Batch of 4 targets.
Target 1
Amino acid sequence: MIELEKLTKRYAGPSGSVEALRDVSLSVAPGEIFGVIGRSGAGKSTLIRCINLLERPTAGRVRVAGRDLTALSAAELRAARREIGMIFQHFNLLSSRDVFGNVALPLELRGESRAAIRDKVMPLLDLVGLSDRADRYPSQLSGGQKQRVGIARALATDPKVLLCDEATSALDPETTDQILELIRDIRDRLNLTVVLITHEMAVVKEIADRVAVMERGSVIEHGATYDVFTRPQHATTRSFVADLIGFNLPPALEKRLAAARLEGNSRLWRLLFTGPHADDPVIAELSRNLGLDLAILHGRIDEIQGRPFGVMVVQARGDDARLAAAKSYLASRKIQVEELNDVVTIDRAAV
Ligand code: ADP
């Protein structure tokens, strides 16, 4: 549905040009929810604005629904943009128009009749749960309701693609969840393709099928959300996902471990549970069948895209043979084992 090919974008700045996008290539399949995550200044807004050509790339090609937008005339581009709806962090509603009037605006601009507009707007307000608020003004609405108006307005021209520019960043966590749920619901009902940019990994985890991680204008990593969360390749990605998946040790525990002297027959392991054996009773098997003493120091079990995922930090005590047998048992269950003893030793040396 969306193909970005070798996009580069340079802005002229006071001290020379800024390269906001460097050779970015991505493709998004129909019906997919695609997340783009990165810190402030990474190039996310520039990227999403290139998809509807609000920004024209300096080089590269943008194809939406098979059409090369970079090759269209101004009039053709206006028509093509109707297939691409967009919602914004600060909603961008007209304060002088009520809810109905805001959603009707793109249809008025297209010259639709009053009857046609009514027939289109009312079901959309129903879809976003605002049919009883049609005559309210933006100042009378909560943030979540304003974003619902934004979504209804974006859908008024029956787009194939919905672009979400930090759409939940101004909302509290509960409202964020409701809006994400609505976006997912709309995707399912209308088979929309959704691209969302965010600086919040929690948003990606909640809703994105696939994700691209951006840094300094480049995509440094992309893939299925589950894979990127459970096997982050790049240090930046690792730091994005660490807290959310319980990868980091709580600071107090880390201090305690750094201060403690681990005995020779005691190992500190971080276990990553993914894949088909994530639900297996491995801890019980390790202690019962392999005779290891296990202390669970930290852990989190969660779900990404409906698939289980867990992180656990354990202190395992046993002789060398038992520890080695435990490691091969874990490997047979496809559970990754990371030795933290070395990390803790290094930390201690640094202190
Ligand atoms: P993000 O959305 O990830 O915060 P942006 O796409 O807004 O990143 O910005 C990427 C880089 O491009 C930043 O260095 C930013 O300062 C620069 N930039 C963005 N828009 C403009 C502009 N209109 N003119 C000059 N520089 C810009």
Target 2
Amino acid sequence: MRIVLLGPPGAGKGTQARRLAESYGIANISTGDILRDAAAKGTEPGLAAKGYMDRGEYVPDDMMVRLVMERLARPDTRDGFILDGFPRTVPQAQALENALAEIGRPLSCVLKFKIDDEMAVKRLAARWTCPSCKRTYNMEYKPPKLDKECDVCGAQLHRRDDDDEVTVRRRLEVYRRDTKPLEFFFWERGLLREVDAEGPEDVVTDRTLEAVSDIVDLAT
Ligand code: AP5
């Protein structure tokens, strides 16, 4: 199973990616998490990426392609993977398509999570994130059991620097400009499947599992 998740900020890609990867025991690759970890470590590329992220802009394609190709070369991707947040531009999609064609392991499908902009803004305004295990919480829909503490690993939750409303609206614009065209790119290849991402998390998970159920039967 090799799946790409598409969808605007706040659509619930990260939430559903974790659930899918756990259900099928495959690698979960979040480019946002990889970049935030690199920035937290203070590496040069990490700090360069943080500048783009904090402005709600995309990190340049060459850096993203290099980073994802290195990650896909690791052995834990052999049985399959979820790509959450990559590709986001047509050049990234072409690079991925070529790399997977070279090893004879094309994508199984692309799931596009559909959500209204105002719902996305509302969700992100209430998101708190665990910097350690990367789980996300929502003060409106899914608060942690203890105040600002991760239920699973106990780390202090924090707000992402790019979750203020002005930056979220910029991220939505950038998504529309640079990532929307990928819907046609993948549709043309017969890979695009839509998932209604509004409604309770568990309901969206059921829809997501249903959307990939035929692929599960085909194993990897
Ligand atoms: P990234 O971290 O990938 O951010 P994003 O794509 O903007 O998506 P989000 O993480 O904000 O939202 P999500 O859809 O994962 O929602 P979540 O599950 O958390 O990327 C950040 C930045 O990195 C980019 O802006 C860019 O700068 C850079 N970058 C990354 N990849 C790149 C690339 N390939 N090229 C260039 N630059 C790149 O859910 C959101 C909230 O809603 C949570 O609080 C959650 O609990 C809640 N929630 C989830 N589902 C539901 C539900 N069904 N009902 C109610 N609440 C829900």
Target 3
Amino acid sequence: MSFCTATYRIHDAKADFRKKAESIAVGMTVGSWTELPQIQQENMRKHLGHVVRIEEHEDALYGRYADVTIAYPDINFSRDLPALLITAFGKISMDGQIKLLDLDFSKEFLSGFPGPKFGIEGIRQLLGAPERPLLMSIFKSVVGYDLDGLKQQFLAQALGGVDLIKDDEILFENPLTPIQLRAAECRKAAEEAERTTGKKLLYAVNLTGPTSQLRSQALKAIDSGATALLFSPLAYGLDILQELSSDPDINVPIAAHPSLAGAFYPSVNYGISASLLLGKLMRTAGADLVLFPSPYGSVVMPREENLAIRQELVRTDLPLRTSFPVPSAGIHPGLVPQLLADFGSDVVVNAGGGIHGHPGGASAGGYAFLQAIEASLQGIPLEEAAHTNPELQAALNTWGGPK
Ligand code: 1AE
């Protein structure tokens, strides 16, 4: 028999954790066991969940808790993430202090998921950048702009030599810059910039609107020149990401935005761990790039959680392409050495304010990042590199140097 397992952290000052674990294993599978007549027990046995492990802990900071692993028979659920999530953490997510730490998919279950269509390797091929860290710029101040305003902003970012530009996630379908026109105008601007910089550029257009229209919006955007898509899977549902990413006609990389993630992962006692939510689940649902708050910027996440997300995105023991980690929020050039030390080269350095807020403008913001990346790769301290790189010097003066 084949099982998916779920590991939970359950906080409770007095509970009998074994009893609790067994009630979950039975309650979320066959409902009731001891009351079933013998004959029915035999029929139901293949559907019964079971407790794999219970590790009890008591510590001064977190009190009394147990890490509990339960196996759920694959036969109980269809091959989609909602079915597994509802089984493993539907009703019980509301039953006391319980956090879903991890899910381990059976080989059989995972075989239903193609995963990222491009992944790290595919994106590197599209950009002709086989090894180095990538640089992404985020459109800022997009609401209320017309197409020309947006195009000017796009061009300024693109000329700074970035590899990717993404829409801000709060740029929805709107009459001033509808997705098709935006994709077409920015495509022209990208080609103009590519002629100057000699670098390929991907533009991730924000895919929004009613769920029933997402596919047609995506196809329209791609037809008009979008070379990537930005999508917020936690607002729409991971299964929608899975549908989009496995659609053969949606043949561009998808970047997953972490909007709403703060409602799930930060609590020690409740929710879903960051590494599962923003790592394993995003990758399984097919995100080629995954954004999440870094440990160092304006919205922070503990470093060990960040590295655990990274690990889920890049681990090579799964039959899925890897996804690019994109630690984000408040990133500026002074943070680049730390970012590369923690994430290595398979990372997208991503900045909005850290590019647009450069005193020399957005293009200078892009140069400053490229200079910081180059210096970090060569092991040159940024302060030293700044002597010969005025854009980097201006960035360090503005935001400060390495922490
Ligand atoms: C964690 C998501 C970060 C994001 O979407 C965003 O727009 C960041 O902007 P900056 O770099 O903080 O200005």
Target 4
Amino acid sequence: MSSAEQISPLDPVDLIYQHGLAIVPGFIAADICTALRADIRQLLEAGEFRQAGVGRGAAQQTNQDIRRDRIHWLDGSTPAQQAYLACMEEYRIALNSRCFLGLLDYEAHFAHYNPGEFYRKHLDAFQGRSNRRVTTVVYLNDGWQSEWGGELEIFTAQDESLLKVEPQAGTLVSFLSDEFPHQVLPATQPRLSIAGWFRINQSLAGVIDPAR
Ligand code: OGA
Ligand code: MN
């Protein structure tokens, strides 16, 4: 076997196990990304995207100072969404068997950021207050140019800037939801992503994280 053959592709499960953070270009195949973009186009034309909220359930509010994106929750109603959700189901099962995370289900939304829009630095989950354990973000813009901006900037738990990821179609960013603050920087082009969360089924002193 040549040395090239011994280099295995990046495995997000290994990276999560070792670092709690994974960045994997090409995680979602190009044809699935193309089909997902077509889904988004259709949903946008049908007026099916809504201003994203901040917070959960009854406490949810829209806060334009924090986030500006518009979202649509995936419901698995198209072949593209089914293909995407099947990839995430495979990832969920692999995470559970390697990392014993007990992830039970997955929720995800398309996100559309217009030029200039952002999502300020935040955590996706606070310890003991959320069922979200592992975040996934998958990008859908084909041929993204560095000068367009729109990176996801990830910080350490100590709030030091760790790295910036360009929103290139097919790239998966995944991390432990309560450990990595992150922010979406404004772009000069429309920016498309799917943000999702694997959840555990834990009652939080009677307050169960609502589905959305
Ligand atoms: C989120 C989020 C990141 C991105 O929706 O919580 O952080 O790059 N999205 O779209
Ligand atoms: Mn987030």
